[in-house]
Amino acid sequence: MRGDTSLLIIEDSSDDRYLYRRLLAKYQEPFSSIEEVESAEEALEILQHHRPICCLLDYQLPGMDGLTFLRKLKKLWIDDMIPVVVLTGQGDESIAVQLMRNGAHDYLVKGDLTAESLHRAIGNAVRTCSLQHQLNYMAHFDALTGLLNRALFLDRLQLAIKKAERNSYECSLFYLDLDHFKPVNDSLGHDAGDALLQAVAGRIKSVVRETDSVARIGGDEFVVLLENVDVNITRNVAEKLLEEVNRPTHIAEHEVAVSSSIGIARYPTTAKSAQELLKHADLALYAAKGRGRSTYHEFSQSQKEIWQRKQALEAALPKAIAKGELQPYFQPIVDIPGERLRGFELLSRWPMSDYPNIQAMELIQMVEGLGLMEPFNEWLIDEVCGKAVLWTKEFPDISLSINMPANQFHNTYLVDMFRSKLSRYPIDPSVIELEITETTLMRQPDASIRLLNSLHELGLRIAVDDFGTGYSSLAYLTRLPIDILKIDKCFFLEAQHDERNKKVIETVVALGHHLGLKVTAEGIESDKQWNDAKKSRCDLAQGYLFGRPTPCGSQSLKEFMEHFPRIQRKG
């Protein structure tokens, strides 16, 4: 049988088969072919490999009646029932009801058969089955990507665990999340976001086996179930998924780059049930993001405490922002030469007695995950503007810099927020510097240029943070309205042991000066690194050698500078 419009006649009587063909010919139904078999066994053999548009089934077949056939057919095509019209020599309402309950779409008596009734029965059966397929698809598959949805995936997961327990093998569950999906929606629109999700879904399926289950269970969240795999295969698949998903995607004439993080849990090694597998994979995903994203992490039992901590912090964070419990910490930036104060970088901290070691990256990830970026950014901008008002009275040339989170950078509300805040505070906007990582800028370079131009037009200064760790081109660098390049600390760390890193630093400094930019050396922690920064002709320096991030409270600048005895005030 070939094609999707073939008809299968299952009838042991040659006279009846001839009758069906003659009646069908009157309507010239465009079947690609009409196949005939004389037994239910032969029909089931064919139906293992081919799906006709409809079956005409004789109820009384030798060796198997129509009811038994329908039950076997249902097992064969469990997710995709085939339209079946049953034909019988005599009418029996009780049999008809049983047939319909087991998958028959119509029931006709051979003695009453006409071309019209046969044609109508086939047409109704095909249309009814098509509607059932659509409803079944909507109930079990994600409409955007065609992947399994949460409900069907959970069913598959339960079955997989039972099989694994019965056959004594292991399963691996991957929880995959895109790291920078929201900026795509914000800057390019939801159509572009949908196109990216479709591309990611296709890439995930290209890595795993056809027998593996892949589902989309949230906006940019995917899960993958691998059955009967060991830990080495699991890790190999995780690495391939990261490599494949992280490739740039061309959407609407834009090159979009997102990274992904993966959490992994295994049955029965680290979880004993479907719900535990999902929960533990989610915990592992959280840990992967905490390690810098674009990586995978395997669940361990110690992460239960991490999960409890995460839940407590996420419950408390909205109130902390609303009540002003977050604190700004300030790390000094010095001029070269002279070790004189140039300004400070403002870093966000959340002092909590129960959980004292909340890192900046963890805080930002929680803020993003809870959808609190707007109130957080409003607090941050108020803090930097308020300090600028106070400290410029003592030091008119001071600069104060703040970091722009990657997931919010391309959101245009930032321009409106800065415009509104700057109108309320009596400060020169150039006092404030916005730090954006090189990787964030190059994720959507054209959108970055537009947004940076808007921010620069407000009078704000722009610094490219962690320069040298991304993949920006000179062509884009010359188009960006930037004022400062901050060389990533890894170069000064490695320069102590590798002369090539010194050459890289000197090249970046020369490039920055050629473009009229100031260059900052980050991560200066030793006198050796300090000397390297001076020899390479960097303009500014920042690091623990001059001072760690420190809370200020209501201190004046003069009082605050007592925390940093190595630095002289510019006077």
TrEMBL record:
Residues that the record marks as modified (4-aspartylphosphate) are 58
Domain EAL spans what residues?
A: 310-563
Which of UniProt's keywords are assigned here?
Answer: Phosphoprotein
Q: Which InterPro entries match?
A: Biofilm_reg_signaling, CheY-like_superfamily, EAL_dom, EAL_sf, GGDEF_dom, Nucleotide_cyclase, Rev_trsase/Diguanyl_cyclase, Sig_transdc_resp-reg_receiver
What protein does this entry describe? Answer: Predicted signal transduction protein containing a membrane domain, an EAL and a GGDEF domain
| Needed cofactors | Mg(2+)
Q: Which NCBIfam families does the record cross-reference, listed alphabetically?
A: GGDEF
MF annotations from Gene Ontology: catalytic activity
Q: Where is the GGDEF domain?
A: 169-301
Which parts of the sequence belong to the Response regulatory domain? 6-125
Keyword Cytoplasm attached: no
Q: Name one GO biological process term.
A: phosphorelay signal transduction system
